[in-house]
Design a protein that fits this description.
By secondary structure, this protein is α/β, with parallel strands linked by helices. It has 3 domains: 76 residues, Arc Repressor Mutant, subunit A (Orthogonal Bundle); 96 residues, 3-Layer(aba) Sandwich (D-Maltodextrin-Binding Protein, domain 2), CATH 3.40.190; 86 residues, D-Maltodextrin-Binding Protein, domain 2, CATH 3.40.190. It contains 9 helices and 12 strands.
Length: 279
């Protein structure tokens, strides 16, 4: 017999994972630590498996917890969208601009889920570099823009910081003193921050592959020809995070809305994109 899962329990599970500890999550959720711990135990009992491993240093996911996490996040996202969705406005076609660096499977899923819930809306997506997208935004060809902030742009609706991680293929072997780099082509704020971090740490480097395409960079890293600093949300296939390279400064990502035509639908789309990136 199938047992329905309580979304409140899934919400508690996701909150604990995001916070990294039961105490922090309890403070953020305005609950007592025992109450939150009890919710996790109930979820584990319902599923018949352990989801979290607890230690004095915090919590970490079991293999079962890792499998559950993306499903729990998606269920919560869908639930939030279904609860009192905005009234359908007169405008029924929304254009969204996204830099390719942010295009990943879960961002695509956000749009697909949104389109299913708001079936009468038409969504179109433009993927390009920040300069091209801002030109489209200034022409009012885009309703929502998600990209790195530009100094000449208006104040974004929301702005968040995200870390970059170093990725390498599992069979990657550094065979020379100089670090082989896979990196975005100029102009790119990530490129400058990556090279500055290596130079400050006195690490020799040389570029073996560069492209303006995220998919091309991911393929190059997966092939084992070099390492790259990318968002944790866009890992190359078959790769792992390298811990012994210098930290690259966080990247700021922002959501821009057309001020004269913003409405609840535009705001919801922007919110969902940032929410997906935070996950």
């Amino acid at each position: 017999m199938t047992q329905d899962l309580d979304t409140a329990l899934l919400r508690a599970f996701v909150a604990v994972v995001r916070a990294g500890s039961m105490n922090k999550a309890a403070l953020q959720q305005a609950k007592t630590q025992p109450a939150l711990s009890q919710q996790i135990q109930r979820l584990e009992q319902q599923l018949g498996r352990q989801l979290l491993l607890r230690s004095p240093r915090g919590i970490r996911l079991t293999a079962e917890g890792e499998r559950l996490l993306p499903y729990a996040e998606r269920i919560i996202s869908l639930t939030e969208q279904l609860q009192a969705p905005p009234a359908l406005p007169a405008k029924q076609h929304y254009c969204i601009g996204v830099v390719e660096d942010l295009v990943s499977s879960h961002l695509t899923r956000v749009l697909m889920d949104f389109a299913k819930i708001h079936a009468k809306l038409r969504l179109s997506v433009e993927v390009a570099d920040s300069i091209t997208l801002f030109a489209s935004f200034e022409r009012q060809a885009l309703d929502v823009l998600v990209c790195m902030p530009v100094s000449t742009a208006p104040t974004p609706q929301q702005e968040l910081l995200f870390p970059l991680c170093w990725f390498a293929a599992h069979d990657f072997i550094k065979q020379e003193a100089s670090l082989p780099l896979v990196i975005f082509s100029q102009p790119c704020a990530w490129r400058e921050r990556t090279l500055d971090a290596l130079n400050r740490a006195n690490i020799q480097w040389h570029i073996v592959f560069e492209s303006s395409s995220l998919a091309a960079l991911q393929a190059a890293v997966s092939a084992g020809i070099g390492v790259a600093a990318l968002l944790a949300q866009t890992p190359p296939e078959g790769c792992y995070i390298i811990e012994n390279l210098p930290t690259v400064p966080n990247i700021s990502l922002a959501v821009y809305l057309q001020q004269q035509s913003r409405d609840p639908i535009s705001e919801k789309i922007g919110h969902l994109f940032l929410q997906a990136l935070q996950q």
